[in-house]
Amino acid sequence: MTKLKVGIQLYSVRQAMKADPYGALAKIAEAGYKFVEAANHNADTDDGFGFGVPANKMKEVLDNLGISIVGSHINPLKLDRLPAILDYHQALGNKQIGCDIEFYPYNDLDYVLRRCDLFNKVGEMCKERGMRYYYHNHYQEFQKIGNKTIYEIIMENTDPSLVFIELDTYWIIRGGQNPLHLIEKYRERLVLLHQKDFPQHAPQPIVMYDGVVDPNRDITDSIFTMTKNPLCFTEIGTGILPIQSIIDAAGAAPNLEYILLEQDHSQLDEIESIKTSMNAFHKFSNIEFNAG
């Protein structure tokens, strides 16, 4: 079984990154994180990292801090912007980019299939550069069109050699699915893993479709935001999700190296939050924090 390298998704510290990206990265390194995944939600107008930072300067900062970038969310996906964004990430030494909240609400089957075509095109552009493209889920992908989930439709209509996946186990569970089953089913396509945690005493049921959101309605961005309760997140390793079982199952995925801690909301300062998560995460086995 492969030990998973533990990193951090920079969305967890987005306010610190926005205020002072270099200073925030230094604090992340001081906290002990060596691997980061970026989250650029301004990819139609911004650089490939999302903070207006030139690639050569960012590469210098990352190298000096001993940090490696192992992925990045790029939203929105626009084919005309991608070459410059891929140039940027290649300059950083990043070998893969992905997307997360890219195209919901899902409307109908034809719409989903058109997005699958786009994902294949993005995957081809990445492959031509020796890079990979991956898709990150939320809970909406476990709505259904007919008798299949959106996620099943995406997996069946994208090329496994072009479109890989980053499974977010928190959102899988909140979508009413079993992450262990999905890890096993799609193990060949799994290249990154997101790990959040759910608090023991949360104000919502763990499954969003158990009275929080109607699974048969269009889940717009505003609905997603309004129903995402900040008190339903806790520092990773302090909640109730079956994290050790997830790590054990994921360790058999042949293309997976990294498990990335991510927290959408915290009652703590962002840097204190990621420190707390790191300290709590040390109790798990088959992981490593400082491997090269």
Automatic annotation (TrEMBL):
<dbReference type="Pfam" id="PF01261">
    <property type="entry name" value="AP_endonuc_2"/>
</dbReference>
<dbReference type="InterPro" id="IPR036237">
    <property type="entry name" value="Xyl_isomerase-like_sf"/>
</dbReference>
<feature type="domain" description="Xylose isomerase-like TIM barrel">
    <location>
        <begin position="25"/>
        <end position="264"/>
    </location>
</feature>
<protein>
    <recommendedName>
        <fullName>Xylose isomerase-like TIM barrel domain-containing protein</fullName>
    </recommendedName>
</protein>
<dbReference type="InterPro" id="IPR013022">
    <property type="entry name" value="Xyl_isomerase-like_TIM-brl"/>
</dbReference>
<dbReference type="InterPro" id="IPR050312">
    <property type="entry name" value="IolE/XylAMocC-like"/>
</dbReference>
